[in-house]
Amino acid sequence: MEIYIEYALAENFLLDAMLLWLAMKAAKQEISLWRIVLAAAIGAAFAVAFPLLKTGKTIAYILKFSVGALLCLVAVKGKGIGRYALTALLFFGFSFALGGALLAVYSAFSIDYGVTENGYLTESAPVGLVLSGSAVFAIVAVTLTKRLYRRRAMRRFVYPCKIELDGRTVKAEGFLDSGNRAQAGGIPVCFLSPDLAFDLLGDKVMTEEMTIMTMGGESRIKIFLADSLEIYCGDKPNIIKKVYFAPSGNIRAREYKIILNAAVLAE
Fold it and tell me: Are the beta carbons of 129 and 105 closer than 8 angstroms?
C-alpha cells in the first residue's frame, strides 16, 4: 500500500486537534489553540512514525495510551489532576467512539481495512471521507454534550411533587420555573400536563379562567384550585395550601410534568 506522508500527517493532525477540542469542550476547560496545535502536531508525528516501530501489541498499546495522555497534558491549560484526568478520559472516549464510527462507515462503503501486528489500523479510505465523517461525528458529539449539560443543569430545579384535590392525589416531578410568576387573585398558578389534570379532576369541570400573555397576545385559559401542593426539596416537604393549576399541552419534557410557579418555594 502506498502512503503519502503529508496526507497522513494532515489527516492525523486534524483528527487529533478535533478530538482534543471536543474533550476540552466537554470538560468545560479553557481552550488554548496553540496548545491544541502543539499537541495535535505531536500526535500526528507519532501516528506517522508508529507503523515503523517493531513492537508487540502490549508495548504498542502502552505507547498509544502514553502518547494520548501526553497530548492531553500538553493541551490542558493550568494545573490540577482532576482537570487533567477528566479531559484525558473524554479524549480517549471520543477517540474510541470515532474509531468505531469510522469502522462502521468503512463497512457500509465496503472499504478494506485491517490491523497490523502492533495494533495499527490500515485502511484505503479517501481522506475526504474520513474528514467528512469525522466532522459529522464532531457535530453529533457537541450536540449530545450540550443536551447532557442542559439536562444536568435542569435537574437541579426538578423536585418530586404531590397535588391533592377533593381526596384525589397525583405525584409527579415538577420543574421550578423562575419565569413563571402567573397569579390569579393573588394565588400562584402552576401548570401541569393534561393527563395529570384528568387524574385530579375526573368528571369535574373547570369553571374558572385567567388571562395570560402569549406570543400571539392575550389568551384565556382554564384553571382549577387544588387543595394543596407538596414539594419535596429537603428533609421535610414544603406544603402550600390553595394553589391554582392550569392544564398545558406544551409540557413535553420527559423529566417533569409540572411547571412550578417561582413563588411556591418562597411561601
Answer: yes
Question: Cβ–Cβ contacts within 10 Å for residue 104, how many?
Answer: 11
Q: Quick one: CATH architecture of 158-266?
A: Beta Barrel (2.40)
Q: How do residues 14-40 score in pLDDT, each as one tens digit?
A: 999 999 999 999 988 888 999 999 999
Helix extents (H) in the chain: 5-26, 33-49, 57-75, 81-108, 127-155, 194-201
- For residue 203, give the C-alpha cell: 368528571
Residue type, 11: E
Q: What is the pLDDT of residue 113?
A: 59
Is the Cβ–Cβ distance between 58 and 122 less than 8 Å?
A: no
Residue 114 has pLDDT above 60, yes or no: no
Q: With a threshold of 0.85, does the pTM exceed it?
A: no
pLDDT in tens, 155-166: 788 999 999 998
Reduced to 3 states (helix: H, G, I; strand: E, B; else coil), residue 109 is: coil
